[in-house]
Amino acid sequence: MEELSKKAPAPSLLSLCLDAVAARLISDNARAGGGVGRTGWPGGCGGGDGLGGFSEDDGGEADEDRLHPEEVAEGLPWELLHRLASRLPPVALESLHHAAHARCCSSAKTTSGLGLQDGDRRGMKRSRCEDFSTTWQLLFKLRWPLDNAGHNNLGTVDWQQKYWEKHLQECLDEAAESAFLPSFCGNIGELSISAKIMNSIYQSIDTSQHHSRLEYQCSKFGCYVRCLRLQGVLCNAETSDLLQQCKLERLMFIRIISDPEVNGACLLLSWHAETLLSLEFIHCQLYPTIMDKICRSLCQEGSSHGIQRFSIKSSQICETKPLTISSGLLNFLSSGKSLHLLSLNDTKMQSSLAQMIIHTLLESSCDLHTLEISENNIAGWLSKLNKSSTNSLALRSDIFMNSLSILNLRSMIPFISWSIQKENPLLRLTVENCELSSIGVIMLLECLTTVKQPLDVLSIADNHLGSSVAAALAKFLGSHVRALNATDIGLGTLGFQILEEALPTEVALSHINISKNRGGIRAAYFVSRLIGRAPNLVSVNAAANLLPPESLEVICNSLKQGT
């Protein structure tokens, strides 16, 4: 009797019935490949409303022998329909979702004829969508528990769209691995997706070969895709056809090297040029002739484009023998009225190209917020500009510099010093591990100290500067900067002594990192004085400064005296 009392309670009749309906829908979907009914629902990847509809031509058993999702959606009340949805794998849920959508639309038309208020109709539809969204979210987290999709999204997340977008990305990544093999010589669309991926969406091991092909998956779920990452091996005319139903907003290309790959990428870009907002190239060979072709795919000369974020990383964009620069790239930058972010990181850029890019941006009407031209061979190019050219640049720089809020450059201290004097709203500056000289940093700090709009965050970490920057750094601390990272810059005991003695009486700092500077007891004395003069101070990192035991008493006394 005791053993019987510990057994789980018997399932209710309703639960058994829902399990049976779910099992039948799963079985029918696996055999039919996701068909939803006798006629299929409008819209989806073959239509225009964004819902991935399926049709009966996918195959499967005779129509009269199947349990059609629309019959279930019409026969069950919404409460039971939601409980049934939680029992279904993604493809079966997809079919039920469209059937419920059709019922919802039909109900809206009916209630409109009966004279119900718009708010009542919207409330009914919104409730259904919210419940199904929760089911899609659970399926997403179950399949990809480490993915943080939606965590930083302040708006409503379409988990159905996120699920199928991530699914198709997995299919494409797997197809790329197969296409990389030397033995591969077929069509990419005919590649079969692994049983593991197919089982995750069908919950069945007997999925047909036709439904396991990449071409079929793209045709069914491509309409959900807004963001894609494509290896160069997938960039061809066939893939462009497979992805025509996508409404791409963000696109990343990796390792585009050969001419066929370039042509395939250009086909994709020209097809999705109207919807693309973000474009990124990583480890690609983007010589000027190639860059010209890519830029022409996005916009013709004299016309504008809608790209907001443009990034090239670890890819060569110019030829050095002889020096050749892409005119298409410069035209692209000049016509980018919507361009907010430009990143040309580690592109083997020479100083002449950097100068042309800055000139182009200054002359353009873009509202650029973030500019990164780091890890390039451009040291000293600004010093070559004569005064007349610098003055002409200054006349055109007001709009450009007023929009810029994040600047990530390397070995361009003169440009930074010049630009920040233009009353720009630059809020954060990071020049870490840039092999900066003490003279350049002193020049920078002097400029930052006198600007009308003070900097919020500055990081000069991991540059061997020595104690010579201490006086300028102390003066800068009085400029209302709120966070400073000066770790491992070689201050030493002398540098901390200068900082302590020259520290302004009022400091607005909230956070400071002065670790790894071998300051000894002088580091403790500086921290002690800073605590007394920075009422908003929240955190201090003074680790790895060889602090002696008596440092604790020095700092604690300041904490006791502080408010």
Automatic annotation (TrEMBL):
Annotated region (Disordered), positions in chain: 36-64
Residue ranges, compositional bias (Gly residues): 36-53
InterPro entries found in the cross-reference section: LRR_dom_sf
Domain of life of the source: Eukaryota
Biased composition (Acidic residues): 55-64
Gene3D superfamilies listed in its UniProt record: Ribonuclease Inhibitor
SUPFAM superfamilies (UniProt xref): RNI-like (SSF52047)
Name this protein carries in UniProt: RNI-like superfamily protein
Organism: Sorghum bicolor (Sorghum)
